[in-house]
Amino acid sequence: MASRKKVLLKVIILGESGVGKTSLMNQYVNKKFSNQYKATIGADFLTKEVLVDDRLVTMQIWDTAGQERFQSLGVAFYRGADCCVLVYDVNNAKSFETLESWRDEFLIQASPRGPENFPFVVIGNKIDMEESKRMISQKRAMAWCQSKGNIPYFETSAKEAINVEQAFQTIAKNALQQEVEVEIDFPDPIKIDSDTSKDFGCAC
Amino acid sequence: MENDPLVAQMEDLELDQSTLFAQPRLLFTRPKVYVETSTNGKEGMPGFISLIETTNYEHILSWTPEAAIPGLDQDSYVDISSEGEYDSSRFVAPPRTPEALRSRSFHPSDYAVSVPLQSIYSLLVYPPRIKDRQGSIIINLIGGESLPAFYFHDDGLSKGKGLPGTPPTWGGQELLNHLEQLVEVVGSAIEPGVYLVNASRADKINHGAASPSLPASSLPSSGVQDHPLREVSLRGEHESLYPDISSINQPASPAPDTATTTATGSITVEGMRRRRSLTENSRSNSPGTGHQQFASATGSPNISSSGSFSGRPRTPLPFENHIDPLVNTVKEMRWNILERFSQVARFSRDAATNILDHPITKQILPPHVQQRIHESEAAKRVMDDYDSARVYLAKWAATVADQSDKERREVQEMDRLRQGQSGTGSHPTHGRNGRRINDHEDEEGPLGAFNVLDLETECTMIHHSRTDPLSPMDWFSFFDDEGRLKVSEGHVREVVFRGGIEHDIRIEVWKFFLGIYPWDSTEATRVALRASKAEEYYELKREWFDDASVQEDEAFQEQKLRIEKDVHRTDRTISFFASETLPNFAGDFTGVGSNENLELLKDILLTYNVWAAKSPSDRAASTDKTSTSQPSDILATGETLNSPVEPNLLEGYVQGMSDLLAPVFAVMGDEVMGFWAFVGLMEKTKKNFYRDQVGMQSQLETLCKMIQVLDPKLYKHLETCEALNLFFCFRWLLIWFKREFEWVDIMRLWEVLFSDHLSTQFQLFVAMAVLDKHRDVMIDHLQGFDEILKYVNDLSMTIDLEESLQNAEVLYRRLEHVANKVDAKRQERTTSSENGAEATPEFPPALRKLLKETPPSTST
Ligand SMILES: Nc1nc2c(ncn2[C@@H]2O[C@H](COP(=O)(O)OP(=O)(O)OP(=O)(O)O)[C@@H](O)[C@H]2O)c(=O)[nH]1
Ligand SMILES: [Mg+2]
Q: Record's superkingdom (chain A) (predicted)?
């Protein structure tokens, strides 16, 4: 039986302003899309319970402002992250080109243990738009991801809920792995097998 | 529980016990109880299940859909203020069976349901199981009807499963536990999962062969399992995921005395059959339930309504002293609590629109504040049931307390007016917001000697000066025949600070405050200015608008994209910016259309880039603004040209600027004046947008110092939470609370900030006021930076502006008071001993800068 230890996974979403970070988060957590999300100022997060490999975990998903100017706030938000999601807009070349600096900046500010192995996930968003608008091919994006240590890559539409669930499943999975590796020395205090334990309440 | 904000609050507010006792009370409530509906699919519709005691001690069970409560879910919110459809007869409640289950109406409030406990015949309890994680309860009424199944979604609440010895409480169990305190609930020995409410003797016999004559006292108090009439406990019956909790709460509740034979008069065989068939679906059918006997017993007269313990003081069941094991898991569940918190914040946005004023409860609860207080009092008792409810009720109570505080102040105000005194409101320094009074006692504050000052008592008499907005009549009376101001500029500033401006004249008055019109201008000057401003603006605009090379410039295009992207996400709910009469020229994103005003926002922002690139941006920083300095009227005086040019730190459009522009543009109503008003506003806020973020940083640091001086306890708490960076106030300060208040409030707030009357940084006092309002909740419930951030973000659109402004002014005076005290003390020590001054710390210079310079104290 899987361990039931409570796990909180901290996930940070980064990327240029307007690529759809807020939309992705809301699509994933609230199953909603609105084209009236305001530009994010500061940061906010949502939480969601997910089952990953039989474990119930809580994902705390941080949505940050996209403008570089506000990156200095990052330190406060990045610390203790278990996974970092880099988002770009497939119809906007610049948003892809800046992925590298978002990644580097994150590693500097979050300074995770073992930066080489820190889990990232890359998302190319807004694939619902006309093909003619597309600026970054899947091939190009995947090549970049490969060069950065095989970062998992997803193409999504927050608007049409394409692939969002799958992307976040992987995010959760990789974040959990990170978390497990970090906290390996704390064994699960108790195993509660729900199917057989009827009587563990106070017996008085 | 001495940390409980409610306790203090209640001490403050509980006015008259005797009247309060006559009020209805909320005894129990639990969110996330779902009812299946035709529209919401499998998931069902979430709502609150509650137990309420009415004024005549009748107990009611009700379920209210979240969606029926304004603010909880904007999408599904439908106005339900019409009361006509509710039957206000005996049960002061909506139809017993939700209308929507019969018809195909999808109105959320139709699903609301409310029944007196006396009308409940039995409960079918399906605790959560491995496959069916939610668990549900079906309530059968005496008339034979059944309420829809209530699914208790405990996912968010049951995360403590892994902790040893801390079994979580299933919501259904909690409901049963609370029901048990109000009515007799016995489990059927032959039909597992069936619980009879105030069962008749006949029913008891049928369901458990209980000896009808057995007096209550002789019931065995232990060995519950052996007795056919089991206590309300789900123990071991259904491989429950949830270990038994109530069995810890021995002994069993007393069986009813013989006099409380129940009102079973209306039970029919048919009704019974229906219940039977419900039970047969899912569990093994026990034979021999003796329908005839049952039917024969139904003739017994309704002797007393045992459902209500009216007038009889109820001795607390041991249950009540039992510490809910969930408390231990609270730490684990904080995230879920926070989620709920956010709902709560919205939920309690307006005391008048939450549960209490919902049409369903409205009829039970007359709209008096006192009883709202009492609601919270009662609520307090059930707060420990589980933490999210506690938090929820705490917030609710805070709102209620607020309301009463406000009304009390109104009454005071009326009294004062009647006695012909000035309309100055006094601000009660205690009781407000339910804040604890003695917080500063025995606090070794970070500033040591500051603690000598007994702020709370010394500042009791500090008043705010808020009053009515400036009317057009008064405004025009300020001018002479030439249209020149004949009152002092300071007077206008003070008037606007105290009351704001009526909307009709904002368009004019703001032009003075935003530096478009000089204060000493005549009407003729202003006419000329309008023309020259227009010329100047279009000249700036032409620089990018008419220049193809600029348009093709990559940097320009990038700026344009940034601006477009944000403008399309700015205040689209405001009618001024809502329409989609033009195509979205940006052609980006979701294909939502544009409109003329949006296009003008873009133009203004692009033109501002041109303007900002030409002007020394650090002007505000170089002329160190003290309170006496005037707001920038550089535009009017042309003084800009003479200032030393400093490196431009603005570098184009920064997110947040569109938020600042939208209201000033809407007030001005045209492009030219919108632009210049924006320039004036940016003079006050542009440091916030500098590349190095130094403007934001210094504001946050100053605010932090202010907390340290005015509320050491909160400061300490933030310190333990590692939240002293105050990043959760970042959005507030960056765009002057634009995202925290409704549109109309933003205009009211901003003109107070424009006035620079007490301080040029009055936004910091407003921030302090909002923090002050929530400091108890923060201290008691929020334990980390992220929790605080979430909580503060979710305050958005729930903050009372008028109150915040009043409190901000009081806080200003308080800070001033501290400054004077500290100065006086230091002076005293320097004169009495040589090195004495060192013992008293200096008043922080950063804070001193916020205060208006006052003539040195002559009192000593
Ligand atoms: N067509 C399409 N538009 C999208 C999609 N996701 C987001 N958008 C739109 O892109 C714009 C920006 O989306 P946001 O989610 O606010 O972007 P963001 O990354 O959070 O932006 P910042 O908060 O400024 O950093 C909005 O107008 C969205 O409606 C998508 O999958 N498809
Ligand atoms: Mg965003």
A: Eukaryota
Cα–Cα distance, B282 to B278 (Å, whole number): 8
In chain B, how many H helices and how many E strands? 33, 9
Contact across the interface for A36 and B735, Cβ inside 8 Å = no
Give the pLDDT of residue B216. Answer: 37
Q: How confident is the model at residue A183 (pLDDT cuts 50, 70, 90)?
A: low
Q: What is the mean pLDDT of chain B?
A: 67
Task: Say if CB B183 and CB B222 are below 8 A apart.
Answer: no
Q: Residue B567 Cα, ligand 1 centroid: separation in angstroms?
A: 13
Q: Which residues pair with B230 in a beta bridge?
A: B187
Res B456: pLDDT: 52
Q: A36 CA to chain B: closest CA distance, Å?
A: 6
Residue A160 CA to ligand 1 center (angstroms) comes to: 12
B696: CA distance to ligand 1 center in Å? 26
What is chain A's Cα-based Rg?
18
Whole-structure pTM value? 0.62
Ramachandran quadrant class, B32 (left: phi over 0; alpha: psi -120 to 50; beta: rest): left
B786/A60 touch (CB, cutoff 8 Å), yes or no: yes
CA distance B568 to chain A (A): 8
Contacts of B41 (CB under 8 A, 6+ apart): none
State how beta strands B45-53 and A7-14 pair: unpaired
Instruction: Please tell me the distance from the alpha carbon of residue B527 to that of residue B346, in angstroms, as a whole number.
Output: 46
Pocket of ligand 1 (CB under 6 A): A 17-23, 35, 37, 39-40, 65-66, 125-126, 128-129, 157-159; B 569, 589-590
- Asked which of B329-333, B418-422, B668-672 is least confident by mean pLDDT, the reply is B329-333
Q: Do A6 and B592 count as a contact with CB atoms less than 8 A apart?
A: no
* Distance in angstroms (rounded) separating the CA atoms of residues B540 and B423: 48
Distances in Å between the alpha carbon of A175 and those of A81, A157, A179, B149, B380? Answer: 8, 22, 6, 38, 39
pLDDT in tens, B27-83: 777 778 888 766 555 667 888 788 877 666 778 888 877 766 544 432 322 222 223
Tokens representing residue B614 in the block: 């030409």
Task: Give how far A147 is from chain B: nearest CA, Å.
Answer: 28
In this structure, what is the dihedral angle of CA atoms B661, B667, B670, B674, given to the nearest 10 degrees?
-30
Q: List the beta bridge partners of residue A80.
A: none
CA distance B82 to B104: 20
Q: How far apart are CA B398 and CA B431, in angstroms?
A: 11
Domains in chain A with CATH codes: 2-203 (3.40.50.300)
Residue B175: HSE in the Cβ half-sphere, 13 Å Cα cutoff: 34
- Phi and psi based region of residue B26 (left: phi greater than 0; alpha: psi -120 to 50; beta: remaining): beta
Residue nearest to ligand 1 atom 9, measured at CA: B589
B412 is written with which tokens?
Answer: 């005071």
d(CA A12, CA A78): 7
Cα–Cα dist A6/B160, whole Å: 8
Complex ipTM value: 0.87
Is B162 in contact with A201 (Cβ distance < 8 A)?
A: no
Three-state secondary structure string covering B764-798: HHHHHHHHHHHHHHHHHHCCCHHHHHHHHHCCCCC
The closest of B43, B65, B153, B6 to B347, measured between CA atoms, is: B65
**DSSP designation for B413:** H
B325: enclosing H helix or E strand: none
Probe target for ligand 1 pocket from A14, A23, A132, with the most ligand atoms within 8 Å of CB: A23
Give yes or no for a contact between B666 and B613, defined as CB atoms under 8 angstroms apart: no
Mean pLDDT calculated for residue range B574-583 = 88
Q: Do B730 and A198 touch (CB under 8 A)?
A: no
Percent residues over pLDDT 90 in chain B = 32
Nearest protein CA to atom 14 of ligand 1, as residue: A20
Q: Is the pLDDT of residue B507 over 90?
A: yes
